[in-house]
Amino acid sequence: MNVLVACECSGVVREAFRRRGHNAWSCDLKPSEDGSPYHYQRDVFDVMRAGGPTHWDLLIAHPPCTYLANSGALHLYYKGKDGHRTRIKDVSRWSDMRQGANFFTRLLGSNVRRICIENPVMHGPGAKMVGRDYAQTIQPYQFGEDASKRTCLWLKNLPPLRPTKYCEPRMVCDACGKGYAYEAAFSKGCPHCGAEAGRAKPRWANQCASGQNKLGPSDHRQADRARTYQGIAEAMAEQWGSLP
């Protein structure tokens, strides 16, 4: 199978397919992090045009989500003097959002038989611009990863990914903020402060007690958060790479 993994410089998905014998290539405007020769540092649409309309059997794309993700919805409007968001649009932000949505829909409308587009949950205006709802949502902990990050998949001629291995979370007490074993959450309550079991919340290794991502500010934070989890990449290669 000829596989193009767009907007990927880590090589995680590309290598999962290549290990199974597929002709898989990644493509991004940035160089490959692993120095692989199977990486195009070019615009993805130039790569697809050069290969011809029937060259690629499968396109998996991870377009930038900065202006489409629900987490950025509050930045679509200016702040008032009281600190609350107004209904006055940030024109520059909306322009960037339209460009992001256009890039997303161009990928989804590509002339490739099978397509998967991955992105976080979108805010309302972004979803309206994309104009098509996602096919499924997945979590890394459904694929053996000790992490929580809800991810949406837009699919064309592909079956939904089947979970492969559930990774149990630790439980965090919302009274004292301390963690304890998953098994005790529904029977014994918090062993630290005695709070009833019902006040426990599931948390995975990438989350702090309040549920936020643990990664602090850094120059590479965005790239680290965007990197595909290995368990999900392996499931894509195993399940979609075996399609007739």
Would you kindly provide a written description of the structure presented here, covering whatever features stand out?
The protein is built from 6 helices and 12 strands. The chain is an alpha/beta fold. The protein folds into 2 domains: 2-165 and 217-240, Rossmann fold (3-Layer(aba) Sandwich); 170-203. Helix 1 runs parallel beside helix 6 (230-240) and helix 3 packs across helix 4. The longest helix is centred in the middle third of the chain and has 18 residues, at 91-108. It is globular and about 65 Å long. The protein starts with a strand and ends with a helix.
Quantity of strands, as a count: 12
- Multimerization state: single chain
Structural class: alpha/beta
State the domain count. 2
Instruction: Report the biggest beta sheet as strand number plus sense, adding barrel if it closes.
Output: 7 strands, mixed
CATH class of the largest domain: Alpha Beta
The fold-level CATH name of the largest domain is Rossmann fold
For the largest beta sheet, what order do the strands appear in spatially? 3-2-1-4-7-9-8
By CATH, the architecture of the largest domain is named 3-Layer(aba) Sandwich
Nearest-integer average pLDDT:
88
Q: Per the principal axes of the C-alpha atoms, what is the gross shape?
A: globular
Radius of gyration: 20 Å
Count, helices: 6
Percent of residues in helices: 10-25%
